[in-house]
Structure formats: C-alpha cells, structure tokens
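Example 9 (inverse folding). The structure is encoded as follows.
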C-alpha cells in the first residue's frame, strides 16, 4: 500500500468523509462523558460562573433579565447562545450539554481540517484523534462555560484562514473572529496575525478585502458596544469586566492564577457579589455613584498604577504567569478538572507529581510540530506562532487558568498532529532537543504550579450535596475539608451544615471560631450573622456584622442587616440608628427607608413611618415598594387623596401587582 504523503493541502477540498469520522469519534467521547457526568451532583448544581451564565440566559429566554440599567459586565455571546437553547428546549441542562457536545465535536473536526490544510491527511488523522479525546476539551464541552462556543469560533476561523485565498477566506475568518470577540474580548488580539497573514496571502489588489474583513471582524464588538452605550452613558467596549480582572491579576500578593481582589474581602458565593463588590469599592473611593465605564476605568488605573510603582514585582509576576501559561497542570477555575472527573475523563485528564496529561504530552509535540512546519510552510508557521504568542500574552496580562488558556489548544493540537504525522523527522536534534526541553519545563512544579486546593473542591462538593438534600453526605465532605484546612470559611460552611442537621451546639462552636479568627471576608461574616440569628445568638450576630463593617467601611446593606439583628434582639433604638446609617451610606438604596418605616409602624408611629417612606420615594421615585407602603401609611392616617396618588404611581411602576390593585379599589370606595 502506498503511503499518503504529508504534503501541503491548502486550497484543496477538505476530505469530509475523514472529518466525519473525527466528528463521530469526538461525539462518542463526549456522549460517554456526558452520560457519566449525569450522575454527578455538579450536573444540576452549577457553580459561580456557570450559575451566572445560567441565570442570565434563562432570564433572557423568559424575557425577565434585568441588568439594572448597566452595560454588560461580561461579553454576552455565550449567555445569548444558551438562552436560544433554553428557548428551544426549556430550562434543560441535558439538552444544553447535548447541543454543546455537538458543537465540541465540530470543533474537533475543525482542528483536524486545519491540520489537513497545513500537513495533509496524516496530520488530519493525528490531530483529529487528539482533539476527539483531549480531556480539557471534553470537560469544557460539558460545562456551562464560554470555551465551548469560543473554541468553535476560533477553530473554524482558523480553518477559513488556512483555505484558498479569496473572499471566502477573508469573510469566513473575519466573521468567526468577530463572534469570538463577543465571547471573550481578548480574541481581538488575533486581528494582528490574521491581518498579517491575509496581507501576505491575498492577491493584489488586496486593500478592499482587508478593509471588508476588518469591518466584519469588528462589527459584533461595535454592535455590543452600541447596546452598552444605549443602556448606560459612558463608553464600555464589549464588557466592563476587564478593569477588575486586570487588577485581580496585578497587585501585591496576586498569585497570577485566580481572581483575587483583597479589597472585596473574599468573593462571596456568587457573581452578583463580585460585580456589586467591584462597583461598591470603586464608588466608596470616588465618593459618588459611578457608571460602568467609570468603574472599569477605576480598576484599570489601579492596576496600572501598581505596575508602574512596582516594576520589578510586576515583571516577576508576569514571568510567573507565562510559566503558568505553559505548565502542564490544569489550574482550576469554577471546577477542578482532576476532582470528581466522571467516566472517561479519569483516563483523559490526569496529573501526577511529575507529569500531567494531556497538556504535558501535547505541548512538547506542538513545539516539535512548529519546528517541522517552519521549513515546509514558513508563512503558516509564523501565523500559528503569532496566534500562540499574542493570545497567550492576552491571557497572561490578567491571570492564567485552564479555562482562559483554552484558546491556545486548537493550535497546539494541530501542531502536535503535524509532528506525529512526520514522526521520523522527530529524531533530528533540532527537533527533539527543543521538544524535550518543553516536556521538562511544562511538567515542572515551580511556584506551586502543580498544587491543587483539595479542601476548596471538597467544599464545593459538600455544599452541592447539601443543596440536593443529601445533608449527611455533604456534612461528611465539609468535615473533611475543615480537617484539611481549618479556615474561617470552612468552619462557617460546616457550621451551616450542623445547623441544618439540628446540631445547634456544634454550629455555635464553629461560628464562634470564625468570629475569634477575625476573618477578612465580609460576605462570610454577613452570611454567618443570619445563621447566628437563627440560633438567637444576637450579640454574636451583632459582632459579626460589626466586623464586616470594619472591613468594608460604611456599607448600607450591612447597616440594614445590623438594624434587623438589633430589632429582633429588642434594641429598637439601636435598630433605628442602624437603619439611618444605612440611608446615610447609600441614599439610593430603598431598603434603609423601608426598614426604618416598618420599625416605626411596629411601634404605632404611623406619621414617622410615612415620613420615612416618603423620604425614600422622593429620593427613589421608581421604587414600587416605597410608594406602595407610603400609600398604605397615608391611608391609615386618613390622607386618602395622597394615598390614591401614591398607589397610582406604584401601579405605574408595576401594573400587575395584585396587592396594589386591591388597595386601589379599596381607596376608590372611600369617600
């Protein structure tokens, strides 16, 4: 049998039968992983980013999403895609993951097609095989996260780019890159190598096609930016998250591997905590309300100020992040790839103290593939090297984890396929020496690169089990996490589990340890105060909220929480003082006025209650709750005409509220 030559296939028709085989193999791997994952508690219980995507997408699908009049905090393409799936199938995570498995299988097929275009059928076979079973690809195709859609856009954009010069090449690559940018904005850095490659490949005259390609690539970003501008004054290019992320990866004490913002005092349990926290800290420093563009600029300048003031530390941190970028260990974000890996993922992604699969094997092969490609296809080799360097740098500027660096993976697999298709050439010292160096470097463990946080993953599992009603199992897992890491956070979570299980004495002991530890996480302290109130431990709840205020400064929500604790403890004067402090800290938060008004009502001081509600309604005229309760108080005071005006105003805000409709009818019946 005559061997198939590993020759250039750029411009040749794609061998769709071979690519269909890759698609089927990839779909089988993803189907098996999905079937195994279906039995995991993490299947239905989404964490942090995934939970936010789900909430956002379902809100869009139902038409109830409210972004509070602000620009997009995160690029919207992936939640939009999920919302379309939900519109078609309902709020069904099985259907969503099945659709993503299909998309991920097309990504594997696209990687194989790219390999064919630079290295021939042998490269297609090897790259297709790797892409079909590459563990992190399979893993992220089952997560409610951005990589699934992002990698499809990047891969097929690269496939168009490597095709025959012409309009199809330009428009296909540009459209895919434009969509990738509104999934993850750092993809726009690829305009540089893509534009350079098109300028080198396109026949003259090329200016018109390049201009059309650039316009198409930027169009989605400009549309999203226009939506932001229409929603909120101030220029927010795609999303306002960039500044906070830049600071998260660039400040004294940053690890370079995760979101760490000391000023937030811990991230809390959700993305809402994070988003609100970034706004709160910036506004507290500015002393006024800030638009999204201003918040983004505030965090960006804070990061840049730190880098310019600490150039040596910033350089060392940057080099460390570049090391993390090529390290074989898959740094977790949202969920750890190595923890609770179901079914085939156990064999497809794993790590030992000296070697991590599959990156630890694919990255050295990609280095060899790039060297081999350089002589045969120098233009394509330069394009792929530029892609890796610029996309990698755009990640390392912020912080590095497995999810963020996935944009490198299609090119790495493609190059690894080229290397394996020419395995005889791997024996040349100019090839195997750099590949061996890459193998050794990427599998080292400097800067604790290969150290995971088992206690953190156990915490996620334990809380997930409890949320599904498996209290005993969840408590056992949380106890292990606390034994491994007796931190305030783990003490609090175990205390919550004990409280749910009726072990109030043990819960109280654990909460007391949190207070004694003087944790720097105000979100944890606020949450724990609610648990202490359930135990009727009012002095301890007050102490928790006082500690939180010491960390955050005058924060309206915390003052309001403190007021409710004092009110339940019978300290009504202290409660009123706290509610007034909440109003002073944030006059645009309706909760302070409402709580103060309800407190006055409970003591029979209706005039004072009406005054509190009215002060709030004047400050926040769009608050339904303030106008509704003001109408009730005025009606009780016998001021019927004013009460009618306020209930009409409330129904203008929320015309479907049954309670307000009933009150209006009652007021109409009055003389």
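The amino acid assigned to each position is listed next.
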């Amino acid at each position: 049998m005559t061997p198939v030559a590993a020759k250039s296939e750029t411009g040749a028709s794609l061998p769709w039968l071979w690519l269909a085989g890759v698609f089927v193999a990839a779909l089988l791997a993803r189907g098996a992983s999905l079937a195994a994952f279906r039995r995991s508690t993490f299947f239905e219980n989404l964490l942090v980013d995934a939970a936010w995507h789900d909430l956002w997408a379902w809100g869009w699908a139902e038409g109830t999403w409210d972004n509070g009049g602000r620009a997009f905090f995160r690029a919207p393409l992936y939640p939009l895609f999920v919302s379309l799936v939900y519109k078609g199938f309902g709020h069904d995570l099985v259907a969503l993951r099945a659709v993503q498995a299909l998309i991920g299988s097309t990504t594997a097929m696209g990687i194989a097609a790219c390999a064919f275009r630079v290295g021939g059928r042998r490269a297609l076979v090897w790259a297709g095989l790797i892409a079909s079973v590459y563990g992190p690809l399979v893993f992220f195709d089952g997560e409610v996260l951005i990589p699934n859609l992002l990698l499809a856009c990047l891969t097929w954009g690269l496939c168009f780019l490597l095709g025959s010069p012409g309009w199809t090449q330009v428009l296909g690559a540009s459209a895919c890159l434009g969509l990738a940018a509104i999934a993850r904005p750092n993809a726009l850095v690829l305009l540089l190598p893509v534009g350079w490659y098109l300028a080198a490949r396109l026949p003259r005259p090329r200016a018109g096609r390049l201009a059309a390609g650039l316009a198409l690539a930027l169009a989605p970003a400009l549309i999203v930016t226009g939506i932001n501008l229409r929603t909120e004054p101030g220029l927010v290019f795609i999303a306002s998250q960039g500044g906070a992320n830049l600071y998260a990866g660039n400040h004294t004490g940053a690890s370079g591997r995760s979101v760490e913002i000391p000023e937030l005092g811990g991230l809390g349990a959700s993305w809402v905590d994070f988003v609100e926290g970034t706004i709160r800290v910036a506004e507290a420093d500015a002393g006024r309300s800030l638009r999204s563009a201003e918040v983004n600029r505030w965090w960006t300048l804070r990061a840049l100020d730190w880098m310019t003031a600490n150039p040596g530390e910033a350089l060392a941190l940057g080099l460390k992040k570049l090391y993390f970028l090529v390290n074989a260990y898959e740094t977790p974000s949202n969920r750890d790839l190595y923890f609770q890996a179901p079914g085939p993922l156990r064999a497809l992604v794993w790590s030992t103290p000296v070697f991590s699969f599959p990156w630890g094997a694919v990255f050295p092969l990609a280095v060899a593939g790039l060297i081999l490609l350089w002589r045969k296809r120098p233009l394509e080799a330069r394009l792929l090297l530029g892609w890796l360097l610029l996309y990698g740098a755009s990640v390392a500027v912020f912080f590095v984890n497995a999810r963020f660096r996935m944009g490198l993976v299609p090119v790495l697999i493609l190059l690894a396929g080229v290397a394996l298709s020419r395995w005889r050439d791997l024996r040349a010292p100019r090839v195997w020496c750099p590949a061996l160096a890459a193998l050794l470097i990427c599998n080292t463990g400097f800067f604790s690169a290969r150290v995971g946080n088992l206690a953190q993953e156990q915490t996620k599992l334990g809380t997930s089990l409890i949320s599904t009603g498996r209290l005993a199992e969840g408590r056992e897992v949380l106890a292990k996490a606390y034994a491994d890491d007796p931190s305030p956070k783990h003490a609090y979570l175990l205390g919550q589990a004990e409280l749910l299980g009726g072990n109030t004495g043990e819960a109280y002991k654990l909460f007391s340890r949190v207070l004694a530890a003087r944790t720097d996480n105000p979100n944890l302290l606020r949450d724990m105060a609610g648990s202490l109130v359930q135990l009727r431990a009012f002095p301890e709840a007050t102490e928790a909220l006082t500690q939180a205020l010491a960390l955050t400064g005058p924060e309206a929500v915390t003052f309001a929480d403190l007021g409710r604790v004092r009110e339940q403890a019978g300290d009504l004067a202290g409660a009123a003082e706290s509610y007034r402090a909440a109003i002073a800290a944030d006059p645009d938060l309706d909760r302070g006025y409402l709580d103060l008004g309800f407190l006055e009502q409970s003591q029979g001081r209706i005039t004072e209650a009406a005054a509190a509600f009215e002060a709030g309604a004047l400050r926040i005229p769009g608050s339904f709750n303030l106008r509704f309760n003001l109408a009730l108080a005025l009606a009780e005071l016998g001021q019927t005409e004013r009460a009618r005006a306020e209930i009409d105003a409330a129904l203008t805000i929320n015309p479907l509220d049954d309670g307000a409709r009933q009150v209006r009818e009652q007021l109409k019946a009055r003389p």
